[in-house]
Amino acid sequence: xxxxxxxxxxxxxxxxxxxxxxxxxxxxxxxxxxxxxxxxxxxxxxxxxxxxxxxxxxxxxxxxxxxxxxxxxxxxxxxxxxxxxxxxxxxxxxxxxxxxxxxxxxxxxxxxxxxxxxxxxxxxxxxxxxxxxxxxxxxxxxxxxxxxxxxxxxxxxxxxxxxxxxxxxxxxxxxxxxxxxxxxxxxxxxxxxxxxxxxxxxxxxxxxxxxxxxxxxxxxxxxxxxxxxxxxxxxxxxxx
Length: 240
Description:
The chain is α+β, with helices and mostly antiparallel strands. It has 11 helices and 6 strands. Helix 2 packs across helix 3, helix 3 (about 70-85) crosses helix 7 (about 165-180) and helix 7 crosses helix 8 (about 180-190). The longest helix has 22 residues, at about 110-135. The protein is globular and about 60 Å long.
C-alpha cells in the first residue's frame, strides 16, 4: 500500500472545535460538543486534567485526516478504558515479571568507557531500590540470564502492589516495555527520575553505538516515536 493510499483510507476530520468537560470520571474530550468514544464505543474519560489536555491537543492537531499514529496519548487511554480499567491486576502482574530480566542487570564487559557509563547511570537506580524497598539484585556480564534472589523479586512486587490506578499501571507497563527496565519505570512513577533521565539511562548502549558509528535515519525516527510514547506515559504518571 502506498503512503498516499494509506493516508486516503484514514477517516476524514469531521469536527471543528475540541474542548474539555468535567465528568464523574474526570475529564471528557468533546468534538463539537460531543464526547469522544473509544473504538469499542466506551466513553473516553481521563481522571487527570493534564492527560485529558494532551488527548484534546492530539485531536486538535489533526488535519484533513485523523491519523491514530500521531496520537500516542489517545491510543494509550483507549487501551486503558477498554482493556485495563475493569481489572488492572493482570497487566500489573505482567509488569512485575519484567523485574526478572531488567535491563540494568546486564552489563558490558568492555570497553571500559561503556562499562563506566553503565555504572554511572545505572548503579544509582539499583542503590535507590536497595535503600527504598530493600531489594538487592544480581548483575551479570553479557546477556546470559541471571536468576534474581526471590526476596528481591518479592520486594519489587510488593512495591508494585501499591499501584492500582489502571492509568498508572498502563503507563508503567508502557514505560517498562519501551525501556526494558521495570526499575526505571518504577523510578519514573515514584518521581525519582524524570522521563528524560529514564530515557537517557535506557539508551546507554544505543547512544554508545551511535557515538562510535553514527546514527541511522530510520532508527532515529523510530526512537522519536517511542520517545513520544514515553512522554505520554510520564504524563499519566504525573511526572513530565
